Amino acid sequence: MNHDRSNRVCPVENAGGLDNGIRKFLQNPRKILSPYVKAGMTVLDVGCGPGVFSIEMARMVGTSGRVIAADLQDGMLEIVKRKIKGTEAEKIVGIHKCLSDRIGVTDKVDFALAFYMVHEVPDQASFFKELHEILKPNGSLLIVEPKVHVSRSGFEEMLKLVRSLHFEVAERPKVFFSRVAMLRRLA
Ligand SMILES: C[S@@+](CC[C@H](N)C(=O)[O-])C[C@H]1O[C@@H](n2cnc3c(N)ncnc32)[C@H](O)[C@@H]1O
Q1: Of all helices (H) and strands (E), which one includes residue 138?
Q2: Does pLDDT of 55 surpass 50?
Q3: Where is average pLDDT lowest: 13-17, 43-47, 60-64, 66-70?
Q4: Max CA-CA distance within the chain?
Q5: Ligand 1 in reach of 143 Cβ (< 6 A)
Q6: What's the CA-to-centroid distance between 164 and ligand 1, angstroms?
Q7: Per the domain annotation, does 3 fall within a domain?
Q8: If we measure between CA atoms, which residue out of 106, 68, 64 comes closest to residue 84?
Q9: Among positive and negative, which fits the CA dihedral 43, 49, 51, 56?
Q10: Of 120, 143, 180, which is best to mutate to test ligand 1, by the most ligand atoms within 8 angstroms of its C-beta?
Q11: DSSP symbol at 143
């Protein structure tokens, strides 16, 4: 099932548009994530792009935790690698290359973030099934989609799919200009 817009993957040349001060002000990563991401957790940032959220999550989980920054584009992963090189985050963030039809992460995670990426995934059913396997029991998944690309009905359709795949919608947090759902993995 797809959203109402073509699932074109965001090109690496657009990375700067995702990683700038105005966006961080309007969509403050720490503010968005602090209810869910705690010290010591293992977390996944799937479709991490240039790593805006991965790097903030590294600060939040600390050295006792782990962040998996996963993307299918080498160019995005290179940006993340460059940014964390020589910093504390380098010890916490693991870089993972996804395939177009498989996330491929084998670790189990407490929390997964899919920020502005689900509408780019062609086979969402298999994507969410795989996320269900990757999440620990009671793990949670935060989905944030851009209003500009995903209609209200498209988002609700996607939630219907996710519910059918053993997730429950636990919360509907607010993020600027976005459609958001916090999902809990059911057994
Ligand atoms: C619009 S960007 C968002 C990046 C980041 N989450 C953010 O909000 O700053 C979408 C990212 O998802 C990645 N992506 C799209 N489909 C993917 C898939 N099936 N598996 C992994 N990454 C994917 C793209 O390569 C791109 O880097």
Answers
A1: strand 135-146
A2: yes
A3: 13-17
A4: 44
A5: no
A6: 24
A7: no
A8: 68
A9: negative
A10: 120
A11: E
| Angular region, 40: left φ>0, alpha ψ -120 to 50, beta rest | left
Say if ligand 1 is within 6 A of residue 111 CB: no
Please check whether residue 8 lies inside any domain of the structure: no
* Structure tokens belonging to residue 147: 């209003």
The pLDDT, as a whole number, for residue 5 is 45
93 Cβ below 6 A of ligand 1: no
Residue nearest to atom 14 of ligand 1 (CA): 47
Q: What is the CATH number of the domain that holds 46?
A: 3.40.50.150
pLDDT digits (tens, 9 = 90+) for 65-105: 999 999 999 999 999 999 999 999 999 999 999 999 999 99
Q: Tell the residue nearest (CA) to atom 4 of ligand 1.
A: 49
Residue 150 belongs to domain spanning: 14-185
- Measured in Å, residue 19 CA sits from the centre of ligand 1 at 13
Residue with tokens 């989905």: 143
In the reported structure, the alpha carbon of residue 168 is separated from the centroid of ligand 1 by a whole-number distance in angstroms of 23
CA of 10 to the centre of ligand 1 (A): 7
DSSP H or E run through 155: helix 152-164
Asked whether residue 1 carries a pLDDT value surpassing 80, the answer given is: no
pTM of the model: 0.96
